[in-house]
Amino acid sequence: MQQDILVNWSPQETRVAIVENGAVQELHVERTLERGLVGNIYLGKVARVLPGMQSAFIDMGLERAAFLHVADVWQRQPEGEPPAVARSGQPPVPIEKQVFEGQALMVQVIKDPIGTKGARLSTQVSIAGRLLVFLPQDDHVGVSQKIPPEQRDALRRRLNKLVGSDGGGFILRTNGEDASDEELAEDIAYLRKTWTRIREAATRLPPPALLHQDLNLLQRVLRDLVTDATQTIRIDSREQFALLSEFGREFMPAAAAKLQLYKGERPIFDLYSVEEEVERALSRRVDLKSGGYLIVDQTEALTTIDVNTGGYVGSRNFDETIFKTNLEAAQAIARQLRLRNLGGIIIVDFIDMQREDHRDAVLGEFRKQLARDRVKTMAGGFSQLGLVEMTRKRTRESLAHMLCEPCPSCQGKGTVRTSRTVAYDILREILREARQFNPREYRVIAAPKVIELFLDEESQHLAGLSDFIGKPISLQSESAMGQEQYDIVLL
Q: Quick one: which of 470, 488, 491, 472 has its CA closest to 430?
């Protein structure tokens, strides 16, 4: 497999496409104005200590002071003892005895500012790498709880050997479960080098100062997305190419060697029709080359994918047609999961197959394609109803949630009531109002299609209601209204 990474940079947005064997497999988007502060490390200055709230406000040079609660003030516990908070149910040391006004304090953002509230802070620093999380104030070596228990002890022993006695704690992330010793050692070196740079900055910069910013998408390309299969990383900004090259040479020299500046006249995303792929990834229907198609429906609880034969007619018989369509669908579904970044529970409804060897072949192809996904997936077999249930770890917002918002007309339902349904709702509402009020006239303000219906096919019913209640009913078309919206004004 050959992989290329394309980077399209602009001041407002960075987009990264991962192309494998000529087909777009993943799309990552980061918008400058939507970048949060979580993970950033600052040298702040204690602006105010509030003993009554057991908290302090920290000036970090932002618009609003940030909030530090005593529960988020890190304290080293004697070895073998549980944390003091757990022992007594109360904070072990009051905050006024731990921090004082004017003190310079290294803090990390654990919650972004919301509305009028400032960011929430912790004095326990953690730095995320590609495979590991580094806890420089601890000496504990741990393994993610999401990794099966039977594998944790062996992974912990491997990690202890690699960490050595240079200090600091490490936690192996879920995606580091299958990593080689070489990859883990590279991540350990990167994290320790990052911590050294943070400490050096803390000694020479006056507070408030930003000591470490969580990596942006461009930097995460080198840290998280580059693999042995990656041939090139092409970027269309000369300035960002220079910055990324410098970052890569210091922290990830092997990945930085694959960087190339794209100088072509065509937009870089036109090389592999990335824009068209984005458009298709936001569509409910995905057409297959054979003539079949997928229907992808994303809800809060789960995602459903339905496979249909469409216009595909097999060359031999119906069973062969279904088998070929399902095989192609298995490949397309795995790709759509990555491209759309769908996570959580996913239900796939393949077309029913009578032959067991066909079912086994489709399931085998599906699992083979899922194995190429960098995000952890788990797929079961066919259920009694012929469905395949699977899960895919949620790593970030799906592409649709990032690029789209619910339709203001249908409020995300995907359908709106017909103009006739709305017209009959209006007639019932006028009758309800007539029993409670005695206006001179009723005025209906509604969408143009609803008003047209009243003037044409439903004019007789409207006139009949007007005669029944003994009041005139006037109509006003409002193009800005959605089809389900209307107002009844009492004049």
A: 488
pLDDT one-digit tens code per residue, 34-70: 777 888 999 999 999 999 999 999 999 888 899 999 9
| Residues 120/70, Cβ–Cβ less than 8 Å | no
Question: Across 242-309, where does the E strand assignment appear?
Answer: 259-261, 285-287, 293-298, 302-308
Does the N-terminal peptide bond of residue 208 adopt cis geometry, omega within 30 degrees of 0? yes
Q: What is the per-residue pLDDT across 255-275, written as a single tens digit (0 to 9) for each?
A: 899 999 999 989 999 888 898
Share of the chain above pLDDT 70, in %: 95
Question: Rounded to an integer, what is the distance from CA 105 to the centroid of its chain?
Answer: 32
DSSP state letter for 406: -
Which of 139-143, 336-340, 361-365 has the least mean pLDDT?
Answer: 139-143
| Token pair listed for 150 | 């039977």
Query: Can you read off the two tokens belonging to residue 406?
Result: 């619910």
Domains present along the chain, CATH in parentheses: 3-35+216-270 (3.30.420.60), 41-76+92-212 (2.40.50.140), 283-403 (no CATH), 419-490 (3.40.1260.20)
- 234, β-bridge pairs: 6, 260
Residue 399 binned pLDDT confidence (cut-offs 50, 70, 90): confident
Kindly state the tokens that stand for 56: 């302090």
Residue 347 · residue 305 · CB < 8 Å: yes
Q: What is the DSSP string of 89-158?
A: SS-SS-GGGT--TT-EEEEEEEE--BTTB--EEESS--EE-SSEEEETT---EEE-TTS-HHHHHHHHHH
Range from 257-261, 276-280, 412-416, 448-452 carrying the lowest mean pLDDT: 412-416
Predicted pLDDT at 313: 56
Per-residue burial over 89-99, b if 16 or more Cβ lie within 10 Å, else e, is eebeeebeebb
3-state SS class at 47 = strand
Instruction: Enumerate long-range contacts of 462-465, CB under 8 Å, 24 or more apart.
Output: 462/427, 465/427, 465/430, 465/431
CA 387 to chain centroid, in Å, comes to: 26
